[in-house]
Design a protein that fits this description.
Helix content is 89%, strand content 0%. It is mainly alpha-helical.
Length: 198
Amino acid sequence: MLRRSKFTQGINTSIWLAAVICCIGASFYFYDYFLQSLPGIINLDLLKDLQIDASDLGILSATYFLAYTPMQLVAGLLYDRYGSRVLLTIMISICALGAVVFSFSNGLFMASFGRILMGLSSAFAWVCALGLISNWFNKHLFAILTGLVQSLSCLGAVSAAIPLVILFHQFGWKKTTFYIGLFGFFLGIIIFLIVRDR
């Protein structure tokens, strides 16, 4: 009975560890979609502060996906070589740097560069999250856990709207975006310290 209790406890500990690691790894995916929604929420402020027109705003929004899309191919190759922990730590730091650059932008070029940094690094969030799930959980749970991680993207986009509007009105979009970038660096440290590939 004692042996069975220890065995069960070991299984429970392993499941909790897997859940914590995968949730922390997937937090980059949430953070990614949180940042994606920025231009749509502060579009009027961007038009005024960056002195751009509607077509420029469209270009600014598109730069994210122009960087994101081709990096999907690279993300898979680099994941096979370096794993989730290294890539997540580096890429969320680049994404956070992009948010900081964006917060200091005073024109279309600098703002677009910040968005490019966010886009190319965010391409790794989904691949690395799936890698952690496949390494830490049994394969029969892969589909449902993939769906849960996918829901983080919607949650990130939806939850960003009201808090960001409040923060932007309170502190301005530049200061708020700067602190969101700093939070990304903090999240990168947490990922480096806790996340393990296997």
